[in-house]
Amino acid sequence: MPAMPPIITSLLDTDLYKFTMLQVVLHQFPAAHGEYAFKCRNTPQRPLSSLKNELEAQLDALCALHFTQDELGYLRSLRFIKSDFVDYLELFHLQRRFIRVTEQGEELLVSIKGPMIQAMFFEIFVLAIVNELYFQPLDNSAVRAEGQHRLQEKIARLQAFSQTERPAGHGPLLLSDFGTRRRFSRDWHAHVVASLHREVPDIFRGTSNVYLAWQLGITPIGTMAHEFFQAFQALGVRLRDFQKAALEAWVQEYRGDLGIALTDVVGMDAFLADFDLYFAKLFDGLRHDSGDPYLWGEKAIAHYQALRIPPHSKMLVFSDALNVDKALALHQHFSERIQVSFGIGTNFSNDMGLTPLQIVLKLVSCNGQPVAKLSDSPGKTMPTDATFLAYLRQVFGIRE
């Protein structure tokens, strides 16, 4: 039995892009094998290795979960989710043998190895569990009061913008919650999302968390993550063509739905070299997740203009370490020229006056071959096979 009640009680309590990517994997490369590695990018205030036994118990509980008929019914109601995929999920549960937890000194080591149709679904659950286990001893009335104060400040700032500050000629301000993986706790996350939905409904457009979207009757938000592109580095296409192969696979699966493409797997410049007129017309817009957002946005607008595509017809989604003030500044800079929206993660779901964990669980190999992301922010490049990283940089002409 877990030392505390199960943290994850529904398999919908994850980000939408886990379902959208999983559907493509099931339909187009169901035999692919993936390996994922956990990393904490900052120094926690207490060793994460101390969480090992509690995490093991929580994983046991997670792997006992199945989708309920009501949950499957909700998934069937989403236009882009296909019937045979829901039939697969009716039989689905996570297999405990594919995930292993160990410790090395004060570090927590989590390794996932197995079919991607299993392995890729662990990520958000594991990160949410580690966060909640880490913060649970710090959870008290004073911390909650500080979190509530900060949340109310954000809501007041957004209400002021909505009522009096939005400049004439600028597009609407659209914010979404992207905070599942870094949340303070499950119940606090639900409180934040419900509060934003209630208090600023003209600005708050949805959440990446499928369970909360279902419960609150709001839009689930998300398309793809880096792992989707990275897998194509090992799926039998020429390495130089892996981004085009990934984009094409997405187009064939969704045929116009879920049209926001992620740009920073090997950097924005290399992405735009592959994002030709065909893809630029088919996709609704682009998502920023690393590097200077202003430089990135200007490159995106210039690219659309060079292709003679009106930027007003496309959307830029910003999602890298955002807070409300950063989102408002980016909105001010870009929204006269192109549609913009913002996904805010940790600053919505874990702004309690405590230092958040910067934890990730990334795909490091596929089908026995190393894969990598060469981020526009160097610190986000996940350590992997040095020879492959050098080769990837050479193929795409990227300097270290």
TrEMBL record:
PANTHER family from the UniProt entry: NICOTINATE PHOSPHORIBOSYLTRANSFERASE
Species the sequence originates in: Craterilacuibacter sinensis
Changes after translation: Transiently phosphorylated on a His residue during the reaction cycle. Phosphorylation strongly increases the affinity for substrates and increases the rate of nicotinate D-ribonucleotide production. Dephosphorylation regenerates the low-affinity form of the enzyme, leading to product release.
Classification via NCBIfam families: NAPRTase (TIGR01514), PRK05321.1 (NF003704)
Gene Ontology biological process terms from the UniProt entry: NAD+ biosynthetic process via the salvage pathway
UniProtKB keywords: Glycosyltransferase, Ligase, Phosphoprotein, Pyridine nucleotide biosynthesis, Transferase
One protein family per Pfam: NAPRTase
Domain annotation Nicotinate phosphoribosyltransferase N-terminal: ranges: 12-131
InterPro entries attached to this UniProt entry: N/Namide_PRibTrfase (IPR041525), NAPRTase_N (IPR040727), Nic_PRibTrfase (IPR006406), Nic_PRibTrfase-Fam (IPR007229), Nicotinate_pribotase-like_C (IPR036068)
Keyword check for Oxidoreductase: no
Functional note: Catalyzes the synthesis of beta-nicotinate D-ribonucleotide from nicotinate and 5-phospho-D-ribose 1-phosphate at the expense of ATP.
UniProt pathway annotation: Cofactor biosynthesis; NAD(+) biosynthesis; nicotinate D-ribonucleotide from nicotinate: step 1/1
Catalytic activity: 5-phospho-alpha-D-ribose 1-diphosphate + nicotinate + ATP + H2O = nicotinate beta-D-ribonucleotide + ADP + phosphate + diphosphate
Chain positions found as Phosphohistidine: H226
Gene3D superfamilies recorded: nicotinate phosphoribosyltransferase (3.20.140.10)
Gene behind the chain: pncB
Family to which the UniProt record says this protein belongs: Belongs to the NAPRTase family.
Record domain Nicotinate/nicotinamide phosphoribosyltransferase: where: 175-398
UniProt protein name: Nicotinate phosphoribosyltransferase
Top-level EC class as recorded in UniProt: ligase
GO molecular function: glycosyltransferase activity; nicotinate phosphoribosyltransferase activity
